[in-house]
């Protein structure tokens, strides 16, 4: 029997193209399965929700052929996956400490994110059934 109260906690600490696909693919799949999903974006992971940076994430060197494969198989772009996650109610928390260190403001990020410290994410994650880090 499916547990509809399942909670998925994801830490996004890396900010490349593959990292974004991992984070948003897992998050949207979990949300589509009626899981409660929260993502904590810290350090380079903030690139995944930055208004401009998420549109220009680097493909790992030597993996450029994936771009053609993504397009050929109609894999959604990172911008589309981010929008899907938002529409599905995925909770997104930008790390306040990292934002302070990098001199970034909430306005530098896509609409709808929360800003909080590690304690905010721990409060969400303490009851998580699944915890992942990318």
UniProtKB/TrEMBL annotation:
It holds the Pfam family DrsE_2. InterPro entries: DsrE2-like, DsrEFH-like. Gene3D superfamilies: DsrEFH-like. PANTHER family: CONSERVED WITHIN P. AEROPHILUM (PTHR34655), PEROXIREDOXIN FAMILY PROTEIN (PTHR34655:SF2). This is Sulfur reduction protein DsrE. It comes from Virgibacillus phasianinus.
């Amino acid at each position: 029997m499916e547990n509809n109260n399942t909670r998925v906690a994801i830490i996004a600490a890396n900010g490349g193209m593959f990292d974004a696909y991992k984070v948003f693919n897992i998050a949207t799949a979990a949300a589509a399965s009626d899981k409660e999903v929260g993502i904590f974006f810290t350090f380079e992971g903030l690139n995944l929700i930055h208004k401009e940076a998420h549109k220009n994430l680097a493909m790992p060197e030597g993996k450029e052929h994936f771009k053609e494969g993504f397009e050929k198989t109609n894999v959604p772009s990172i911008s589309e996956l981010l929008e899907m996650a938002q529409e599905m109610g995925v909770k997104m928390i930008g790390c306040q400490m990292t934002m302070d260190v990098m001199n970034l403001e909430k306005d530098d990020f896509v609409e709808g994110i929360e800003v909080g410290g590690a304690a905010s994410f721990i409060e969400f994650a303490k009851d998580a059934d699944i915890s992942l880090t990318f």
